[in-house]
């Protein structure tokens, strides 16, 4: 498998218009190297959305080079470089390369190509500054997409803030996770909706509780 973001098809609710708007900025608009960021609190769906966009057939077709890397709280420049270079299996020679050598390699790889790099969950913009010098800007429509928490949004990017799911969307997600092959039996709807309301539209909360319920016998208790 060429990259980490290729995942099985997941149920996704409520992102259609946001996904479309981001897709337009990725594949249309400015020719110069441009930055798009998806911002929201943990569990709101930033990663699922960036993977959905990353794996979108139109986006795959539009860019020559694609890379997806996850940053985390403690950024590791070397791992990010290796991810973006798609170095999954390292030879001894690769292991001996310095970060600068890897960076230069990246620059050469990206030069002349239209590339999309997704940097998932960036906390510290410093990592980004470190990487930026290896990313050529050649006015060919290349893009960097970040996801971050609200406090860490990058100032010079097109920012998309994620919202909470509506009641209808929450219910749809809840039902599809708890009852994958059937619809919710009428006598459980009220209890189901009460449980779902406690999640307040946060997808992660819905997924966790639905996951627990799906494993149990479906009674009101
Ligand atoms: N709109 C959505 N539809 C379906 N599942 C979602 C949605 N948003 C988030 N999820 C699920 O909720 C969980 C948290 O989402 P994630 O993308 O990891 O959030 P974040 O990256 O913002 O912390 C994941 O299991 C994800 O699959
Ligand atoms: Mg995430």
Describe the structure.
By secondary structure, this protein is an alpha/beta fold. The protein folds into two domains: 16-161, P-loop containing nucleotide triphosphate hydrolases (Rossmann fold), CATH 3.40.50.300; 167-215, no CATH class. The protein is built from ten helices and five strands. The chain has a five-stranded parallel sheet with strand order 2-3-4-1-5. Strand 3 (115-120), helix 7 (125-132) and strand 4 form a beta-alpha-beta unit. Helix 4 (77-84) runs parallel beside helix 6, helix 8 (167-178) crosses helix 9 and helix 8 (167-178) packs parallel to helix 10 (203-215). The longest helix is centred in the C-terminal third of the chain and has 13 residues, at 186-198. It starts with 15 loop residues before the first helix and ends in a 6-residue tail after the last helix. It binds adenosine-5'-diphosphate and magnesium ion. Residues 10-15, 40, 42-48, 173, 203-204, 207 line the site of adenosine-5'-diphosphate. Adenosine-5'-diphosphate binds next to helix 2 and helix 10.
> What is the string of SSEs from the N terminus onward?
HEHHEHHHEHEEHHH
Q: Might you state the CATH topology name of the largest domain?
A: Rossmann fold
Q: According to CATH, what is the class of the largest domain?
A: Alpha Beta
Q: Strand order, main sheet: write it out.
A: 2-3-4-1-5
Question: How much helix is in the residues?
Answer: 40-55%
Low-confidence parts: none
Rounded mean pLDDT score:
88
Bound molecules: adenosine-5'-diphosphate, magnesium ion
CATH architecture of the largest domain: 3-Layer(aba) Sandwich
Fraction of residues in β-strands: 5-15%
Q: Over the alpha carbons, how many angstroms does the gyration radius reach?
A: 20 Å
Number of strands: 5
């Amino acid at each position: 498998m060429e990259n980490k973001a290729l995942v099985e098809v997941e149920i996704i609710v409520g992102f259609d218009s946001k996904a479309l708007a981001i897709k337009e900025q990725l594949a249309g608009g400015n020719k110069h190297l441009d930055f798009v960021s998806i911002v929201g609190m943990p569990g709101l769906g930033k990663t699922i959305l960036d993977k959905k966009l990353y794996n979108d057939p139109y986006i795959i077709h539009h860019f020559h080079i694609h890379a997806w890397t996850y940053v985390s709280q403690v950024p590791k420049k070397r791992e990010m470089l290796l991810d973006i270079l798609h170095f999954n299996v390292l030879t001894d020679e690769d292991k001996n390369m310095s970060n600068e050598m890897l960076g230069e390699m990246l620059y050469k790889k990206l030069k002349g190509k239209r590339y999309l790099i997704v940097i998932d969950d960036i906390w510290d913009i410093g990592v980004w500054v470190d990487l930026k010098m290896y990313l050529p800007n050649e006015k060919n429509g290349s893009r960097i997409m970040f996801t971050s928490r609200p406090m860490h949004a990058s100032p010079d990017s097109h920012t998309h803030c994620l919202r909470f799911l509506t009641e209808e969307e929450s219910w749809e997600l809840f039902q599809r996770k708890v009852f994958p092959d059937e619809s919710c039996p009428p006598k459980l709807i009220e209890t189901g909706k009460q449980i779902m309301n406690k999640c307040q539209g946060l997808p992660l909360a819905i997924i966790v509780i639905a996951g627990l319920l799906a494993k149990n016998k479906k009674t009101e208790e």
